[in-house]
Amino acid sequence: MSRINANTKGVFVIAATPFTPDGKIDHNSLDGMVDFYFDKGADGLTILGMMGEAPKLTQSESLAIAKQIIKRAAGKPIVVGVSAPGLAAIGELTKAVMDEGAAGVMVAPPGNLKTNEQIITYYANVVKTIGEDVPVVLQDFPLATGVSISSATMGTIFENHPSIVMLKHEDWPGLQKISDLRDAEKKGRRRVSILCGNAGVFLPEEMRRGADGAMTGFAYPEMMVEICRLCNADQYDKAHDLFDAYLPLMRYEQQPALGLAVRKFILARRGVIAHASQRQPGADLSPTAQQEVIFLMTRLEKRMAEIS
Amino acid sequence: MSRINANTKGVFVIAATPFTPDGKIDHNSLDGMVDFYFDKGADGLTILGMMGEAPKLTQSESLAIAKQIIKRAAGKPIVVGVSAPGLAAIGELTKAVMDEGAAGVMVAPPGNLKTNEQIITYYANVVKTIGEDVPVVLQDFPLATGVSISSATMGTIFENHPSIVMLKHEDWPGLQKISDLRDAEKKGRRRVSILCGNAGVFLPEEMRRGADGAMTGFAYPEMMVEICRLCNADQYDKAHDLFDAYLPLMRYEQQPALGLAVRKFILARRGVIAHASQRQPGADLSPTAQQEVIFLMTRLEKRMAEIS
Amino acid sequence: MSRINANTKGVFVIAATPFTPDGKIDHNSLDGMVDFYFDKGADGLTILGMMGEAPKLTQSESLAIAKQIIKRAAGKPIVVGVSAPGLAAIGELTKAVMDEGAAGVMVAPPGNLKTNEQIITYYANVVKTIGEDVPVVLQDFPLATGVSISSATMGTIFENHPSIVMLKHEDWPGLQKISDLRDAEKKGRRRVSILCGNAGVFLPEEMRRGADGAMTGFAYPEMMVEICRLCNADQYDKAHDLFDAYLPLMRYEQQPALGLAVRKFILARRGVIAHASQRQPGADLSPTAQQEVIFLMTRLEKRMAEIS
Amino acid sequence: MSRINANTKGVFVIAATPFTPDGKIDHNSLDGMVDFYFDKGADGLTILGMMGEAPKLTQSESLAIAKQIIKRAAGKPIVVGVSAPGLAAIGELTKAVMDEGAAGVMVAPPGNLKTNEQIITYYANVVKTIGEDVPVVLQDFPLATGVSISSATMGTIFENHPSIVMLKHEDWPGLQKISDLRDAEKKGRRRVSILCGNAGVFLPEEMRRGADGAMTGFAYPEMMVEICRLCNADQYDKAHDLFDAYLPLMRYEQQPALGLAVRKFILARRGVIAHASQRQPGADLSPTAQQEVIFLMTRLEKRMAEIS
């Protein structure tokens, strides 16, 4: 059982939750999907996040999925999204998944938080509820949550709670925030791991600014793995060559709400999951959109052949 | 087992959830609180709403509370709040409480809904998830949810779903919406029950506009019962005399977030619950605020003696 | 030419802007309205605020109104609302009205501010734009602006900018904020004047917590004047007696958006302005709503006869 | 004097407003910038939009800029952004710029609109205020305005107001909306021109879905011109080849708030404007960010050499 910490690096893929066309959890696809992510080089997975359709699951379903994935991961770290409107639900799910061997939990701020003080108090309550021994990922995603966390507020939270060891970084624009956090660490603040989201659309710049890797669900995790490797080796031009090949598709997959349908469509075409289906309610990918994605996938393959 | 329907009238008190000072559910106070509400004339209760600290409960706690209250109510109707970010949780909790004998469920729209079309689709998904046989209360509370439902949108929802039998009305301003709905019914749209919230601060005007009663948690339910009775008897001046006596306290209790602390403080002073405690996190009532409430309670008693 | 400062006390009425039924500024009513406010005991006026329909005016109209009112006020202080999306417009209007003899300007935060840091920077930019010699009222009205300013953030702003001499207080709930500010002053922070808004619905409690008066547009300014006098004389029970008589109407006038129509309707019935008209677009007062207001005005007169 | 209409096609560049480092309008750069845009193939310009720092201008400055640009454009169409919190300001500015020879005005919905009905009423009020003879561009940019306009609502607005001849399309995701509008036109609704924003990051797909061109301010307008040409000639693969070369930079320029600094930095490096300066307050481009942009510009040049 491995746990994340402030020095964790690499690529944690946000895992999809496969469903059958009639809305049942596709447990058959789950193991294969986990294998696929790790075969492509993922260092860990994050499950039951926004893109994992977590709110469409009952708690018993959530636990069953977590259990199966943690088992299949065979010791590789699995972070579990536990964001919920109330602390009781967060506490209950956290205890259950940590007991199963999760590597940590991820918590986004609820949308009713306004002032810096309210945000700081919220994370104090979270840590108090789940215990100081559970590693926490702070998810900073203002576009989805509506909550803006300044660099200074984030610093206060990190100083207050050593168990918050990682930032899932997806503010937009967000590059300066990485620089701010790393600058503060140079002046003595304790280190946190920074893994970046937003479908990877700023990954090379984020790595160069000091990020430790990626935590997002782009359907080609091998791209993220390779870009992190190249950036860590200071081969930025090569990293951008690869990045540029994937960017047209990443941009398409980053579209809010629609993005999950795109992601599942690609994963299904790649044979990773049996069906692109989302559980209802879910935005369908129209035939026109499917053609657009296939067009981009074909161009990607052609471009990859050119640059490799 | 009684169920609500489109002709339900009267006062449904939004029930508090009593806790002990150390944050445990105060099951000992629960039965007495239920008895108190019915002794004061309530026609039914609504539980596990925003003011019932529902998000602070685990699902097993929610069910235990619902079970105890439904049993104690001995056949009187209990509406259960089931609002949640995802449909699966709504479906699961609805099934459980309806099996226990609930009179119906209440659903507020999630904050991410924007257009009329999205709101209409959401309620279609809710009804599909829980089944067309479960009576539903649509909670219209834009100040808390951030979702504005126009009179026309509401009309479409009522026309689409006969199982949505009641509106918990707490838009602000909201009087025109009652008139709009009743006008549409005169022109042929099916009737819905309208029970009003907002701590009762517009109750006489709402009754005169065509509301069927109140659904709110003001700590003096006897006031709501009597105002409904007087308005139904067209004794509006008497209704306002009573209303005016309570209004200073209602206004104080209506304060967002702080209101629940006020409500529980009064209920505890009235001997209805053993402790004013909220489960953490909860806004405390400062000593100064406590003095202000006691001052207003004392003035209320004096005024009641004058007008009775 | 008098200017507001950190010790300003009393009642500043938020002035309406009278229009003729065809949408022209009713300059004939303006002087009489100014006289009415001062006859009823107002210490000053605040013009071109949200309730003054400022956004419906062209800048030349705004200036013409300001000029006429400042002249008619004959030395009594006139605060001018200058909130705008951009600093240039704020700077331009401020210069113009200060040249005319305004007592200061009022600025609410624009809705796109999120973090404490952004709010603090915004007011620094405002003060830099208009100059440090112009007295500023900070309007704290989260329900209308969407911006939440914590007590600590407000303290920082007051410490940074001596020219921000007054708070128009209308957070809701907001009593604790008054206590917080006064407590900080006891520990050494410089004093600011606190005048309270929200149609006066918490005025007695606000005065007791340390407010200096009222800044709101309730159509019976004599009530605000008298309550401030009674509270300053520690006659709180008498203050509440008066307050309770007006509260049913204040509550009705406090309704968002609709409130201005109510206010103008009452002012017109009291003979203060010739027409209740708002410039388009403006929410009309329906015949039913008019009857409700007249009913409450009649009850107020009766109650005033009883308690006087 | 040319005016836009429902058949207008091509590229309308959102023009920057050049400032000197001390915050004065750089009138010397203005003419050259206008020439640059038209030399690169622009069909028209849109000025005084969000990216033109309009809220930082006084009205007299706005008019002076509009006058100079309309004159320099020598008959080419200039659309002027007139969005403002109040209708009076919209009416006043519209009259002034149409008198100067503007091709039309652009209006985004104010952030307080919620329901479909409110949005529809708002545009009715706009058209009534400015007159039915002024061509209007409806700007649909939910990420910036907070207002979501459904395809059906947009259709109602277009049906109600023939003078609203163009959609500035920048919903995200927004491709389906183009398809929805074109589908409705096939069934009989009158045609509107659709020009697309969002820095061009979906331009090839938007053209293929039926858009008429672009209206955005990406610092390489020649790219937009060429992509529109290629798409109109059904040369989609070539269009994507070009698009892919620019996408890394477009993505960087699309960052909210920061984007304008990036755009001006590139325009200054390209010699189009003398200074990258924004009028205060404006987000500066940090030295690190400048390096990132230069890195991307260098890669773009290299890639353009490869594919041409």
UniProtKB/TrEMBL annotation, chains A, B, C, D:
Belongs to the DapA family. PANTHER family: 4-HYDROXY-2-OXOGLUTARATE ALDOLASE, MITOCHONDRIAL (PTHR12128:SF66), DIHYDRODIPICOLINATE SYNTHASE (PTHR12128). The keyword Lyase applies. GO terms for cellular component: cytosol. It comes from Maritalea myrionectae. SUPFAM superfamilies: Aldolase. Keywords: Lyase, Plasmid. Pfam families: DHDPS (PF00701). InterPro entries: Aldolase_TIM, DapA-like. This is 4-hydroxy-tetrahydrodipicolinate synthase. SMART domains: DHDPS (SM01130). Coiled coil: none annotated. Gene3D superfamilies: Aldolase class I. GO terms for molecular function: 4-hydroxy-tetrahydrodipicolinate synthase activity. Pyruvate binds at residue 215.
